[in-house]
Fold:
Amino acid sequence: MKKPTEIEQIYDRLSSSYGTFEESDDEWMTNGLSSTPFKSLVSVALSTMTSSPRTVKAAVALYEKVSTFEDLAEIDDAELTELIRSVAHYNRKTRSLKAMSRMILDEHAGQIPSTREELMALPGIGRKCADIMLNFVFESPSIAVDTHVKRVVQRIGMVEPGTAEQVADALATITPPQYTAHAHEWLIQHGMQTCTAHAPRCEECPVREWCDNVHERSA
Ligand code: SF4
Structure:
C-alpha cells in the first residue's frame, strides 16, 4: 500500500495533469446537468448504466419541461419515458424518478436529503449516485467510485482490491482533505483518457512512477 506522502504526490500530479470538470469542456457541465441540486440528483439518476452523451441528451430534453420535483412528480409517465428514452432502462427510470420526487416532496419537505443513508433510500439512487451528491452538492468528503475510478486506484495500488463500496470507503479514508473536492474528477479523467480498461497508456502516464502495475501494463 502507498504511504500518505505517496498518496499526496499522486493527487498532486493528477491535479496538475487534469482539469476539474468546471475547467474543462465536459459536456455534463456545459449542458448544465449539475447547475442546480435538482438537476444534479436527476442527472445522476439518469446516468446509471448510460454513456455521458446519452445522459446529456435525455437530461437536456427533460429540463426543457421540468425544473422542480413538483414538476417531475406531476409529468405524465408516457411523456417522461419519451423524454428520457436515450438512457438505459428508461421505463424503470421513469418509475423511479416519479417515486423519488414523491418521496422528496412527502418525506423531506421538498429538500434533497443530505445523508448517505437517506439518499440511498430514494428510489433509483445507489451508493455511487449518493456519493456524487454528497461530494458535489453537500461538499462532504465522499469520493464516488465508478468502474473507471475503481480500476485506476486498484492498478496504482492506492487501495486494496474490493467491491466499489469498499474502494469508496478506503479512498475516502486515504485522500487528503485538500483533494477530496475534485479527486473523483481527476481519477475518472485519468481512467478514461490514460489508464483505460484495455489499453492503458503507461508510457505517457503522469503517475507511472507510483504505479504498482506499470511494468506489466507496458509490456
Ligand atoms: S502506469 Fe499504466 S497502469 Fe499504472 S496508472 Fe498509469 S496508465 Fe494505469
